[in-house]
Amino acid sequence: MIKIISVYGTLLLTALGRTLLLALLGLFFACFIGLFFGIMGVLKNRVCNVIAQIFVDVIRGVPMIVLAFFVYFGMPYFFNTIIGGFSVSLSALQAGTICLALNCGAYMAEIVRAGILSVDIGQMEAARSLGMTYGMSMRKVVLPQAIKTMIPTFINQFIITLKDTSILSVIGFPELVNSAKNVQANTFMSFQTWAIVGVMYLVVITILSRSAKVLERRLNVGR
Q1: Would you say 26 and 160 are in contact if contact means Cβ atoms under 8 Å apart?
Q2: How far is the C-alpha of 10 from the C-alpha of 206, rounded, in Å?
Q3: Contact at 8 Å (CB) between 215 and 147?
Q4: Residue 45, SS3 per DSSP
Q5: Contact at 8 Å (CB) between 72 and 92?
Q6: What is the C-alpha separation between 29 and 26, in angstroms, rounded?
Q7: CA 206, CA 158: separation in Å to the nearest integer?
Q8: Is there a contact between 188 and 119 (Cβ–Cβ < 8 Å)?
Q9: Which of 11, 74, 160, 222 has the fewest CB neighbours in a 10 Å radius?
């Protein structure tokens, strides 16, 4: 184990950095996707509700490994061959970010929808009675209260997204699991390699989990 750390420690730490980068990029774009479809899900418009529900059901109903292959191989083929006239090529980072953003965005949409619905309807009615439009009431009154309750859940979703990055080793992105496979192939030390990787994940996820709990307690005190 000491040999692996001394020889491949830098490689694994670099791979961990790539894993965190991929998770952060995925979560960043997922926030916009989740906010968009989450708001669509609570609008008093049946068409918007159905579109949001279809998006959530389709993305959550497809295994992430299938989604990864579809984005990495299927999307370029669709634009380049079926439609034609395009020259689309996605790197593993780009495809991984899209895949994570879509997958995480579907769950974030439900988080946003539930957060908005948790705000007393009287808040919206009071804002509208003051002459605010629906959009202004949502932006200035409802969403700030909803986001406050959603922040701990966002952190938990980031933890899930961080673990989901391991699936993207199938498209060749050099994240932690993919790099660990190379280390294992070079050293033939399966137990030691995966034990080190497991500890690395455990440390990062424990820090994030504790942060979520501390933040949740502080938000509850502020209510």
Answers
A1: no
A2: 22
A3: no
A4: coil
A5: yes
A6: 6
A7: 12
A8: no
A9: 222
